[in-house]
Design goal:
79 residues; two-stranded antiparallel sheet; 2 helices; 2 strands; globular; RNaseH_domain; RNA-DNA hybrid ribonuclease activity; nucleic acid binding; RNase H type-1 domain-containing protein
Length: 79
């Protein structure tokens, strides 16, 4: 089983909320990180929170989320 979690902090670093999830099977760490980022962004969108700073151990995940490409469907990222 694979688990992930994301935490929301305010501008001074205080805890605001969190979300978490799990899935069947074992995934590589960078894919779990990408899944957590995608789910956290969806969670924040539902809460109408737009101004965010993402932190992760995998800079390539942030790059994939912030660099526009013709087709982001491979990672499930996009509008």
């Amino acid at each position: 089983m694979t688990t992930w979690a994301a935490m929301l902090r305010d501008s001074i670093g205080s805890f605001v909320g969190c979300c978490f999830g799990f899935g069947d099977g074992c995934m590589k760490a960078n894919m779990v990180e990408a899944l957590a980022v995608r789910e956290a962004l969806s969670w924040l969108k539902d809460k109408i929170i737009a101004a965010i700073i993402m932190e992760t151990n995998f800079p390539t995940v942030i790059e994939a989320c912030t660099t526009p490409t013709e087709d982001d469907s491979d990672m499930g990222i996009g509008s």
